[in-house]
Write a structure and sequence with these properties.
Helix content: 25-40%
Order of helices and strands: EEEHEHHEHEEEEEHEHHHEHEE
CATH topology: Metallo-beta-lactamase, Chain A
Strand order of the largest sheet: 6-5-4-3-2-1-14
Number of strands: 14
Distance between the termini: 9 Å
Strand content: 15-25%
CATH class: Alpha Beta
Shape: globular
Radius of gyration: 17 Å
Number of domains: 1
Number of helices: 9
Structural class: alpha/beta
Bound molecules: zinc ion
Length: about 260
């Protein structure tokens, strides 16, 4: 069974990631309106009604905005850890009890052949998580909204075929921008977001010969540019002995346009 995926939307205006195989289809996060998410899925020829579950990374609105309406309208199971459920509370309206499912941090489940593993990341949320997916010998890592990538996380995400990896900002653009100091400090902190450079350095330590595609995700619309993020990643990976080309591709992601649906 092939693994299929597309980054439907990525950035501080809303995040959602589609992943599945022939038997099951999941989303990671639903940070768009229900209607917006339905439209993004149509663009990759998929339907919200076929989604078997939504895995939540953390409670920030750019990751959960649509889940209340989606749960009520389509009765789709939503998975989050207990602390994340607590912080969501009633903020998104009533979420039917049967839609509320637990997915603990550092846990794993196998659903229709799709292995899903959660791991703790470092971000200013209740209990933020990244996910690793295993399907038919293929491994895909999804990690955004993390201030840094610990050795422990590196050991979990090492040696994957595909990475969806946060590359939030260019440090000098962030330092010079109009944001108030406390916001800059938060973004740059260990519980904020990883910079282009930090993302590339972490990637250089976890990718292997089997790694085929890297998607740079959650790019800041104020303090980053797709070309800068890709250039920094290319330079750092090449400095560290990795060759960027057909066998190892670097892609960007977009707040509005889904990435091409890929089957591996
Ligand atoms: Zn976010
Ligand atoms: Zn966040």
């Amino acid at each position: 069974m092939n693994l299929q995926f597309s980054v439907l939307a990525s950035g501080s205006t809303g995040n959602s990631f589609f992943i599945g195989n022939e038997k099951t289809q999941f989303l990671v996060d639903a940070g768009l309106s229900a209607k917006g998410l339905e439209e993004q899925l149509i663009k990759i020829d998929r339907n919200i009604k076929d989604i078997n579950g939504i895995l939540i990374t953390h409670e920030h609105i750019d990751h959960v905005k649509g889940i209340g309406v989606i749960a009520r309208k389509h009765n789709i199971p939503i998975y989050a850890n207990e602390k994340t459920w607590k912080s969501i509370g009633e903020s998104l309206g009533k979420i039917p009890l049967e839609c509320r499912n637990l997915f603990d941090v550092e846990d794993n489940k196998v659903l229709e052949g799709l292995g899903i593993e959660s791991f703790a990341i470092s971000h200013d949320a209740a209990e933020p998580m990244g996910y690793v997916f295993h399907n038919n010998g293929k491994k895909l890592v999804y990690i955004t909204d993390t201030g840094y990538v610990s050795q422990r996380v590196k050991s979990i995400i090492k040696d994957a075929d595909i990475y969806i990896f946060e590359s939030n900002h260019d440090v000098s653009m962030l330092q010079m921008c109009q944001y108030p100091w406390h916001i800059k400090r938060r973004i740059l902190s260990d519980v904020g977001h990883v910079s282009n450079e930090d993302a590339a350095i972490a990637l250089s330590e976890v990718i292997t010969d089997r790694t085929n595609r890297i998607y740079l995700a959650h790019l800041s619309q104020d303090n980053n540019l797709k070309d800068i993020a890709k250039m920094v990643c290319t330079q750092i990976l090449e400095e560290r002995g990795h060759i960027i080309g057909d066998k190892l591709q670097i892609h960007d992601t977009d707040p509005k346009t889904p990435t091409e649906l890929v089957l591996i």
